[in-house]
Amino acid sequence: MKEEAYVSRSVGKYLKISSQKCQLVTDLIRERYVGEALTILRFSKKKKASSIVEKVLRSAIANAQQKSPDVDVDDLYISKVCVNQGPQMKRWRAAPMGRATRIIKRTCHVYIFLEEKKGR
Asked: Which residues pair with 29 in a beta bridge?
């Protein structure tokens, strides 16, 4: 698929959640209409990941409305969702006997592409 075919796209970068947790939520909304996806995200049990993905999705909807004001939001659907791993922050925590252990705080990048599909 070419990027020119998309109505809009939105990218959330350096989000402070692991890509594995975010991937579980994005699998729920792939290939769905926007209204249905927002409802799924609102009632998902994974609160942190779903709120992050919801923000990126709302940004994609706003981008579509800004790019072409005549677009119907009800006809938009999520054509492509990608979650990639971002940079990791390395931190240290005290361990027994004067040692230190490494803690890795993971980040991720979320990409959402919207297309318009006429007639449900």
From this structure: none
